[in-house]
Design goal:
Layout (H helix, E strand, L loop, with lengths): L1 H9 L12 E2 L13 E4 L12 E3 L4 E3 L21 H6 L5 E11 L5 E12 L9 E13 L3 E6 L12 E5 L2 E13 L16 E2 L21 E2 L8 E4 L13 E4 L3 E6 L10 E11 L6 E10 L5 E5 L8 E2 L1 E2 L4 E8 L10 E7 L5 E7 L1 E2 L1 E8 L6 E7 L1 E2 L11 E5 L2 E5 L7 E6 L11 E6 L4 E5 L3
Parallel strand pairs: 16-24, 16-27
Antiparallel strand pairs: 1-10, 2-3, 3-4, 4-15, 5-6, 5-15, 6-7, 7-10, 8-9, 8-13, 11-12, 13-14, 16-17, 17-21, 18-19, 18-22, 20-21, 22-23, 25-26, 26-30, 28-29, 28-31, 31-32
């Protein structure tokens, strides 16, 4: 069973440029719509940069299953690719799994039917590479058809909205005549995972011996009865046309309640805390009368609610230290810089999160100005575009610091925005040769200090 699982699930169609995958090689008459069956996801793991965990509506929470060598034991995954820095750092190759379950049926005449269900971590280009992480939920059905006709298929992730009606296929005879793969997922921030079909996750039925090994939802080497899924369907069943012998005993159906299941229960105590920067921006202003410049840095980050979080790298020592927890999922710190340090806003600060068990994650976070587009208009008669934007860096030239440079982006074209009026205010008027007879849907303004904003054009 394990060898089948490895081949079946890892036959993923590598080297595909993922964005949102939905592949159906044979259309059914009754295809299920997506069920929002996953309840949540964890913060980005500080090493592999995938979600630390996924949870379902029944309270099962799983992390990437990476124990062992990937080919034997409680977890299966692609082994580390020697020489690939990303793979070496994460501890696996092109694919790994938060969870998977598959079932296999033997049909009369030697045919096969396979069901593969999975939550998978992969890479858009195939081999592990920085910033190419891709996660998806999979439902795959492959059936050898002995006689052409209408076939009904039941599995645990049918659509509850229609009472978990079976998927129905008009199939011709042949090997893998029913061949369906539905993948729903995407890249960071991985929110699309929560709207797919996969879940609630199947786990070993605790009422049937043996029980699942401690720390796992099942042992993929041992086919076992399960609980979970929708509408109480804990089986894989195929029903063919009346009179077609599917099971070799004259029945037109074949069914199994045995699944090969893998999944490691999330172990928070032994997981390094994740850190997800939300926003770290600065405000700076100059007192014209004194020539002194003061500043403040506001930082918001997400970290586990049980972690202690600190900020460092602020040039004014008494402004480093603990960040305050908002009671939900975000930590905040405001650091104020006096006149002696107002011109020394750092490019980056460090965020340190420590778990209750002493595990520590340190991440560098960029400090940028806050850019806001306050006006973006287009005049139909002339094609003139006017854009006004502000930067939170309102330093005065008398202070001697660097004044931000703002740039307007419209498609591939760029236009410098001069400072007009008070410090921190920028404006550009595009007319004549720079006018746009067809208005852009939106414009973007970026700052040399790292900030940016995008807004739609007002008619």
């Amino acid at each position: 069973m394990k060898l089948f699982k490895i081949k079946e699930i890892t036959d993923i169609g590598k080297k595909v440029g993922f964005a949102l995958v939905f592949v159906v090689t044979m259309m059914g008459l009754n295809m299920p719509s997506a069920n929002a069956a996953l309840a949540g996801k964890g913060l980005i793991h500080p090493v592999n940069h995938f979600p630390t965990w996924f949870s379902d509506s029944e309270g099962t929470t799983v992390q990437l299953c990476l124990d062992g060598d990937g080919a034997t034991g409680m977890c299966f995954f692609d082994p580390v690719i020697p020489g690939n820095a990303t793979s070496v750092a994460t501890g696996f190759g092109a694919e790994a799994f938060w969870w998977s379950a598959d079932a296999a049926l033997t049909l009369a005449g030697g045919g096969r039917a396979n069901l593969v269900l999975a939550l998978e971590a992969a890479y858009g280009a195939g081999d592990p590479a920085p910033n190419d992480q891709f996660a998806f939920g999979r439902v795959r059905i492959r059936v050898d058809i002995p006689v052409a006709g209408e076939y009904k298929i039941w599995h645990p992730f049918l659509n509850e909205a229609d009472g978990c009606q079976p998927e129905i296929y008009n199939a011709t005879a042949g090997t893998r005549a029913i061949n369906v793969t539905r993948d729903t997922g995407g890249a960071a921030p991985f929110e699309t995972m929560l709207s797919g079909e996969v879940g609630p996750l199947l786990i070993w039925d605790p009422a049937i011996a043996p029980v699942a090994p401690v720390g796992y939802v099942g042992d993929p080497n041992v086919p076992h009865e399960v609980i979970g899924g929708h509408c109480g369907i804990d089986y894989f069943r195929i029903e063919g046309p009346v009179g077609v012998d599917l099971d070799g005993s004259g029945q037109n159906f074949v069914e199994t309640h045995l699944f090969s299941v893998q999944g490691k229960i999330y172990d928070e105590a032994n997981s390094p805390p994740g850190i997800e920067p939300v926003r770290t921006t600065y405000f700076r202003t100059t007192n014209v009368a004194t020539g002194n410049t003061t500043a403040r840095i506001n930082s918001w980050v997400k970290a586990p609610t049980t972690a202690s979080v600190e900020i460092g790298g602020i040039p004014q020592a008494n402004q480093n230290g603990p960040m305050a927890f908002d009671g939900e999922n975000t930590f905040f710190k405001r650091a104020t810089l006096n006149a002696a340090n107002g011109l020394s806003v750092p490019d980056q600060v460090t965020i340190t999160a420590r778990s209750a068990t002493g595990l520590e994650t340190v991440e560098s976070v960029s400090v940028v100005d806050q850019v806001n587009i306050t006006l973006a208009t287009w005049t139909k008669a002339t094609g003139v575009i006017r854009v006004v934007a502000t930067s939170s860096d309102k330093i005065n030239p008398i202070a001697g610091g660097t004044i931000p440079e703002l740039t307007l982006h419209i498609g591939s074209a760029t236009f410098p925005m001069p400072q007009v009026g008070v410090p921190g205010r920028y404006e550009v008027l595009l007319s004549g040769a720079d006018a746009f007879l067809i208005p852009p849907a939106r414009v973007t303004v970026t700052s040399s200090q790292g900030g940016s904003d995008t807004d739609g054009i007002a008619d």
